[in-house]
Amino acid sequence: MSHHDVPQKVSQAVERVTEKHGGTVTGMLGVAFRDLRTQEEFYLNGDTAFPAASVFKIFLLAELFRQAEAGKFSLSDRIPLEDSEKSPGSGVLKELGEGLNPTIRDCATLMMILSDNTATDKLFNLVGRENIKKNVLDALGLTRTRVDWGCRRLIARYCDQPETADADADSESERSFRDSDLYLCRTDENDQTSPADTARFLALLAENRLVSERASRDMLHIMSRCQTNSRIPRHLPRGLRIAHKTGTLDRVANDVGIVYTERGSYVLALFYNGNAADEEEYARNEKGRIGDDLLAELSRDIYLCAVGGGGGRP
Questions:
Q1: 3-state class of 188 per DSSP?
Q2: How far apart are the first and last CA of the chain?
């Protein structure tokens, strides 16, 4: 197989996997693949906006490192934990005692490898929403991407819950979010992105051209330690380096990152929005049952395309 056949093979792999899941996947699926050796690409719904969920944290990370390089603060500076700052959902800081004094780098690490929402909101408030927009989204031409909220507000809006640290972002609401404007990214404010925007961002990061070479390498090191590995890494060979970030909301499953293989590296951005599904698929996807399996299988088969393999598991 010629290496230049890879995008066509990726397209065929995506079609096979989606057809396997109930004949067709009716929920909105987004895929971006970029071979970093040849710059060849494949997109499915590449310019469609998807709920970013915790994927928005990659854009926050970039602005954090930009401001650190500009001398606004040092990543070794400490920011004390206060009970009033604790945010609901994923992470460990909300479970720890007031007065803990992590460094900014500690918070960045917790944000990326455990998706810690309290650490994220401390950093979001530190760098500022408008700076993320101006210096990352607008500067890179990420026209489908918005980072309007930290985690506390995102969870309150998306999960229809109060903005308190005691709220359980994983609990089920009696309300259905199917076809809601928020989940379909039709609101004036949101945390959203597109496969194409994310792939552009990640390609710059992989090429050490985001902020600076040193900052890019540092961000990639943190992302390579992600501990949520049920999607892109799930079926890939153990020990493979994967710098990635997941995002999860009700019936929403995302995973975006860079996969480093023996035949070169590629960017992969996977988004599944089950709130755009038909009623039958929406019901089947209770507790996100479809998203993890779908994205893991897509990642496996795309990996096989990228390294020149056939069907089956690595």
A1: coil
A2: 18
Q: What is the mean pLDDT of each run of 10 residues along the chain (314 residues)?
A: 74 89 78 96 96 98 98 97 93 94 98 98 98 98 98 93 60 73 96 98 98 98 97 96 97 97 95 92 86 95 85 46
Return the C-alpha torsion angle 180, 182, 183, 188, nearest 10.
130
Distance in angstroms (rounded) separating the CA atoms of residues 46 and 7: 14
The β-bridge partners of 103 are 78
Q: Is the pTM of this model over 0.70?
A: yes
**C-alpha angle 239/194/237, rounded to 5°?**
15
* Per-domain boundaries in the chain: 3-307
* Helix boundaries (H) for 79-232: 104-113, 117-127, 129-132, 151-158, 195-206, 213-223
Helix 57-69 vs helix 213-223: crossing angle, to nearest 10: 140
CATH topology for the 3-307 domain: Beta-lactamase (3.40.710)
Q: What is the CA radius of gyration of the chain?
A: 19
